[in-house]
Amino acid sequence: MSVPAFGLGTFRLQGQVVIDSVSTALELGYRVIDTAQIYENEADVGEAIAASGIPREELFLTSKIWVANFAKDRLIDSLKDSLQKLQTDYLDLTLIHWPSPENQVPVEEFMGALLEAKRLGLTRQIGVSNFTIDLMKQAIAAVGAENIATNQIELHPYLQNRKVVEFAQRQGIQTTSYMTLAYGEVLKDPLIQQIAERLHATPAQVTLAWAMQSGYAVIPSSTKRANLQSNLAATALTLSDTDMALIATLDRGHRLTSPKGIAPTWD
């Protein structure tokens, strides 16, 4: 897989809160950190990484270009600004965060600029986030599927996004699941709880293991050391085919993130 299976998300975390979360995660053995320009925490993340003393080559850093920076005369400059905040010369993965509202900047333009950033060595890989099948087709037409490492989408047991995942798989594009725990909703699910009890695991571990076993990368976030440590243990958990099949039945198209004016028409 071009994107590591397990990492730390930093959505909604800022200031000392995100510094502590990233610092603790790195101390526990996390090496993959996911941030974004719009999270307004890149400088804090950069500070935590610098203080950790972990060599840059051991880390996998992802950030995402915000919609205001999609134009070809802005994208690369905005990425350089992100690098400065993160105190690094390059990102391992740079994503287009959301599609351009009302197609103000064509897919071809921002994907072309992102591919140029890769050619310049500012990012090792490029990809997309919150892209539908149609948008992925446009991105592929612009830069080729081989240049699209992942599509990061909302994906959890209640929203399994199968059409989008299957299309991406056929193109050799990995899926990254965000909000894998559905803001904690799936942790209360009786089926998930039942599986967790049988495996002497937590509902979060079961859900994360389900996603990783399905072939997705996950980026759960937490501010609590115990939860960060517990989530990391999901990488060692294996679910049976029966458990996987049972969790597949939980899909109900329950979408939690669809910002007005930015979200595309979902598949």
Structure description:
With 267 residues, the protein is an alpha/beta fold. The chain has a single domain (8-248), classed as NADP-dependent oxidoreductase domain (TIM Barrel, Alpha-Beta Barrel). 40% of the residues lie in helices and 13% in strands. It has helices at residues 15-28, 42-52, 75-86, 107-119, 133-143, 162-170, 190-198, 203-213, 225-232, 241-248; strands at residues 8-9, 32-34, 60-65, 91-96, 123-129, 150-154, 174-178, 217-218. An eight-stranded parallel β-sheet has the order 1-2-3-4-5-6-7-8. Helix 6 (162-170) links the parallel strand 6 (150-154) and strand 7. Helix 1 (15-28) packs parallel to helix 2. The longest helix has 14 residues, at 15-28. The model has no long low-confidence stretch (mean pLDDT 98).
| SSE topology string | EHEHEHEHEHEHEHHEHH
Radius of gyration: 18 Å
Shape: globular
Q: How far apart are the first and last residues' alpha carbons, in Å?
A: 25 Å
Task: Please name the CATH architecture.
Answer: Alpha-Beta Barrel
| Integer tally of domains | 1
At the fourth level of CATH, the homologous superfamily is NADP-dependent oxidoreductase domain
Average pLDDT taken over every residue:
98
Number of helices: 10
Query: Helix amount, in percent?
Result: 25-40%
Note the main sheet. Answer: 8 strands, parallel
